[in-house]
């Protein structure tokens, strides 16, 4: 390259209307206004940075004088540029007001270009109003700004307003390809698209990035070198991540995200890029929206191919999750955990669709058996024949003795995060709270059905174990203690015990401690597989609620002779 290097943003600044990129509607309007002699006294060019506002103002200033000067004449006395960022006082505006009265030495118009006009003070704006509304016939004002909302309405009403658009990625990439050809630089289309996307709609930024990348890579721009220099995340990460999501592979999603962080990429940029990736996949689902893709042809083909494996509902749900993560990212205290939870939810979308979950969203287990399966309703007839003893848990791997599997640990972490976020356990209603004991009893009954008695039991043995449970576990609660004391036991067969209560209230207390009772019988007396048939009807043989006090005392005396002897010795009576 020559010693007198000129940056591309200056070297290739448009010098004709045709060379302005991405603003055809505005350039056509300005050219027609000059051709039809319909030039206004004031214009306001507003829009993002680097889209051609000042360039179009200079082209307009030259075009309005083209028919009144010789070709190649100096227009320095016809075009005046003012930077309002540093000249924003009332005195600066007064100088313009004083000089605007003097007609041009050559040509027909004097054009005043005021850049960053929103930086003018309120007093300067007020001093400018009258001149802007009724300038001399030879004066034209062109105001340029990136922040239109800061301009006073009285100024806007005196100008023709032109809103410059962000330049499309495809237009920037084509212009960069043209410049690369002029400079004898070899560039891959994907590399130019990355530069165009990084520029965010600004041609000046795109040319600056282009010069930077050329200095890094030499005269051969490749996709890999460009993303390495600009610290841009490769498309392949998102395509690979989407494949893992389709396979419901949560572990690989987390590993890929960890690799992204280890390479120095920002987690928030990763989330934003993931949202753009799903948006592009959704765009590929309809042939009419495919032109909305702002990527190279090779990458567009990959988007179309991957979009075939995903349905619209899955993509919409994925975009919803990514958007929620994006909104919550700044306020989150644990941002990495937030993104990891997002990946788990994305990989669980196919699982929830397959399971038909409608009311709440659940994470898919990492592997079968690592998360506790829900107990399914089974009857004794339909229940599979269980083994006589529980199968032993697998021993730890010889390579890592005593160390828990990593996937199981991650599964428990996922379960804990779901619980904390309310995705698994929703806030229960009053009806759910009321039915909880019955649901717990139903689960215990199902587990009792699946168990098999290890040996024959007698009623006396069960009654002894029952009383031991009362004495050891229930003495602190009088109501529950009374409930278990008044129960009448009847052994129907070796695996079924009928428990009779006088009312449904006693049944409620029994259900609360039913699981603890089964565990106690199993651990203390080796009574396994005992099912309970609860009878809350006031059966004729029980008659607990209809007996008088004397009848109850006699019944106790029959069961415990010592009570009858004690009553006679001390001459006790029933009051």
CATH hierarchy, class of one domain: Alpha Beta
Radius of gyration: 41 Å
Largest sheet: 5 strands, parallel
**Low-pLDDT sequence parts:** 368-411, 418-428
Instruction: Write out the strand line-up for the largest beta sheet, numbering strands in chain order.
Output: 2-3-4-1-5
Output mean pLDDT: 79
Characteristic key phrases:
Zinc Finger, Delta Prime, domain 3, five-stranded parallel beta sheet, Rossmann fold, alpha/beta, single chain, 25 helices, 575 residues, three-stranded mixed beta sheet, Helicase, Ruva Protein, domain 3
Describe this structure in words.
The strands form 3 sheets. This protein has a 5-stranded parallel β-sheet with strand order 2-3-4-1-5, with helices on one face. Helix 8 packs parallel to helix 10 and helix 11 (235-246) runs parallel beside helix 14 (297-307). With 575 residues, it is of the alpha/beta class. Among the domains are: 23-163, 3-Layer(aba) Sandwich (Rossmann fold), CATH 3.40.50; 169-230, Helicase, Ruva Protein, domain 3 (Orthogonal Bundle), CATH 1.10.8.60; 236-355, Zinc Finger, Delta Prime, domain 3; 459-535, DnaA, N-terminal domain (GMP Synthetase, Chain A, domain 3, 2-Layer Sandwich). The protein has 25 helices and 10 strands. Helix content is 51%, strand content 8%. The chain has helices at residues 8-11, 24-35, 53-63, 90-99, 122-133, 153-156, 169-182, 189-199, 203-217, 223-230, 235-246, 250-262, 267-283, 297-307, 312-329, 335-347, 349-355, 406-421, 430-450, 459-473, 478-486, 504-512, 514-525, 549-559, 561-569, and strands at residues 42-46, 79-83, 110-115, 139-145, 160-163, 186-187, 220-221, 488-493, 496-500, 531-535. Mean pLDDT is 79; it is low at 368-411 and 418-428. The protein is elongated and about 140 Å long.
